[in-house]
What does this fold into?
Amino acid sequence: MSAHLMSLHRCCQRSALLLVARRPWSSSSVSSPPPLHTRLLLYLTQRFYDVEMLLRWQSQLKRRKIQKKNVYYSYTQRFHGAYIAAAYYILSIKGGFRYVDQTDWFRPNQRGKFSWDFMNHKDTHLEEVDMSYTVINYSGLQNLEGQRSLRTLSLRGCSEVDDWFLARLHMFQDSLEELDISHCPRITTGGLAALRNLKGLRRLDISSLPGISTPGLIIILLEEMLPLCQIIANGYDHNLRPEEGEEKKHTQAQR
It folds into this structure.
């Protein structure tokens, strides 16, 4: 049970007991029902574990849906090839892609429907993939394995992209030139260190990563690891030490 739920439970339980204890003990109080707010607190105390179980069940259901969307399409790869399987996976989770030597992008519409014309490109490599704001995760990345011509990959705002995901991007080390991992809440400094394997990167966007505490220092380290790469880092207070931000706020408060 999470700490905030336990705290809420103890608060409701304590309040209900105090309210009941304050009621005067008399023959009339035995027959009269307790006040509405007391009954409400007692009800919440009794139903607390039911609510917690419901929240836990909703969380598990959400995780199952994400895992289902990131299933490995081994059957499709076996009968239609790696490129068709990768294209179908991308479209199925509302991503988009562009084939090599083509200008048109394949994308689903707002309802998630898409054209099946990509089936006519069985032997065509994927060059650009846009998975922004999708639920792609570490398991789903396996569907993109074998895309040796992938130059651009956008993972902007992907809630399931984490450090393990970044460590697996080494499969694109011979082709990937542009990578956008901005606004991904689960990425930390340790995950960014794994990008040293992508020696061919020419553009890296790490803007607005909440898991980065010292963006100034991280940018310096990335520039040393990837000297030919342009680092894009917006949405930060570029401090070398996390204490600098606190000292600045304290100085401004004194003024």
In short: Confidence is low (pLDDT under 50) at residues 16-29, 242-251. The radius of gyration is 26 Å. The longest helix spans residues 36-69. Strands lie at 96-99, 105-106, 126-130, 152-154, 178-180, 203-205, 230-232.
